[in-house]
Records
---
Amino acid sequence: MASALAAAPGDVKEGIQGYVPTAEAAAAKEQFRDDKFGVFIHWGVYSMLARGEWVMFNEKIPYKEYSKLPGGFYPSKFDADRWVAQIKASGAKYITITSRHHDGFSMFDTKASDYDIIDASPFKRDVLKELADACHRQGIKLNFYYSLLDWGRDDYPRDPAIAHTDKEREMYAKYLDFMCAQITELLTNYGPIGCIWFDGDWAKIKKPAPGEQIKIDFDWGYERIYSLIHSLQPSCLVGNNHHRVPIPGEDIQIFERDIPGENQAGYGRTSHVSTELALETCKTLNKSWGYDIKDENWKSVPELIRILLATSGRNANLLLNVGPQPDGCIPEESVVRLAEMGKWLSANGETIFGTRATMLKPQPWGVLTHKEGKIYLHVMEAPEGGVITLPFKLKAKKVKEFATGAPLKFKKTKKDFTVTVPSGIDCTIDYIIEIDL
Ligand code: GLC
């Protein structure tokens, strides 16, 4: 593992050589690619302060004080079945929820710590268990976000002064045991889990000087963690939001707030986009992950669907976040947007779900998706001259407007394929053309 870590960072060569996913994991990865759309849930005791999940760190709240929050955590309106129904209405195929965020509070019944919802809150209900049961009842997959970083525990080596010392290694060995115990619980007590989604790796990456390559000089023990996951549930995928080149044992490459290949959010430490791993972009509905009472920067429904088109056209999934309130309800603004996305997907989902990107990269007019016998052109800007040219030979039988089935004019030549797009098309979201092969 150490050598693979050393070879990977900043290097466009993927460091996953040697990792051969099991048949179960390979099948789960294809299924994950088919799923295309999931809903992220950031929920923890931080939601009570209503200023996002980083509030403790950002406002330098002493852990001693912060850790009193769970004593008042009683989300009286929490109803897992309602959450799942609201999320399913969006068309999403999976849910990824924070089991334990950087504040270290476990939102599930863990024997590895008392700082959890059962021992430290009056609510005393395992919300992950209730959610898992509701997901299984209503037929949607469940994934767990898990923070590698911890702002409170004594054994998490936070102090940079002890970096690379025996003290750091000793502390981390204990902390790693704790994480493995929790991961074992998460993969034993909640039924089949689709993915463990790690976050926080970047906490141990020193900011490189301009022009310098990033240096990974902390050993998280991923070999142990990843093989534990794959042995407990062979079809459970591993994703890590480390913003760098994938390493062995990972099945999903994650892009935070960016579509693969772009780095507008500034988190990406590599421009590398894996062709081996499944891809996933996570985005917020407003600007925040955890509930933020002042954040009214809600994205519009067309904007959200166009993000889904952008990810689908790049072979990636979209994981769209909701931040439930302290009372346990998903904010109404989110519920409404999810429902609208669901309406669009119930009419147009067959052009998204189960598709893959084509070899033709996103174009100025939009993106392409394809599945057995079909290519879909998602026209997001009216093409110049009213014509779309695909620069390859295509044996098409029929070309039609997806919404109405009305035939569209097309021309095949030896080297390309052109479709005439009607004038005045509505590209508020997209105009879909279906090509039957
Ligand atoms: C970042 C943040 C974290 C959030 C995550 C979601 O890594 O630290 O708060 O959970 O992104 O992508």
Note: The chain is about 25% helix and 20% strand.
---
Amino acid sequence: MTTTSTPHIDPQGVEIAETILLPGDPLRAKFIAETYLDDIRCFNEVRNMLGFTGTYQGRPVSVMGTGMGIPSISLYSYELIHHFGVKNLIRVGTCGAMQENMDLYDVVIAQGASTDSNYLDQFKLPGQWAPLSSYRLLEQAKRIADERGHRTHVGNVLSSDVFYSADPEALSRWMKMGILAVEMESAGLFANAAAAGVDALAIFTVSDQIVTNAKTTPAERQTAFTAMIEIALELA
Ligand code: HPA
């Protein structure tokens, strides 16, 4: 299965583990590798989309940036799955909370990812398909979050192509359908995983509260990430 290199990933002989954490920011991938993993080796520098393989409590795990948006995470996840044999893809990121009962730093686990993107059209399904995360990973992540005492919300997120929207009512319509939070990648990841028969999950830290307009600072985000990353690593 393993290809030597793809247009966007050139591991130069470094293995990529079957389980990978996928933050949007490549420097966050470096931070996760340096902070949590042992015996790390860099497996990608193409376009500075840094990827590392190491061990967590003795188990092999990789971590790699995805960039922002469905096109970016989709091409990296496609290559990881189809060319490097990755089986468990766990996005870790921030999200904007869209329900009133959610606070900054709460953990959100995506059960599904609705989207305003056209990415799913390529699968030519005779109807609307619901991109879901892996129940196996979801159930384990929720149990780990509960054991650790984190305030956790599980449900449907919105993977939006639009950060600065021309339609001021768009988000409130999604809110009325019970969407917990907005981010920009998970629907592409879940679709690629489902089409290939592998497992994917997305775990978030609330960085913005869209209903109350509360926001974290960039410095606060760094520390707030810890809970989410540790849950993801426990899945490896
Ligand atoms: N929109 C999209 N993605 C995000 C947001 C947001 O408000 N906050 C964190 N990721």
Note: Residues 124 and 194 are 14 Å apart (CA to CA).
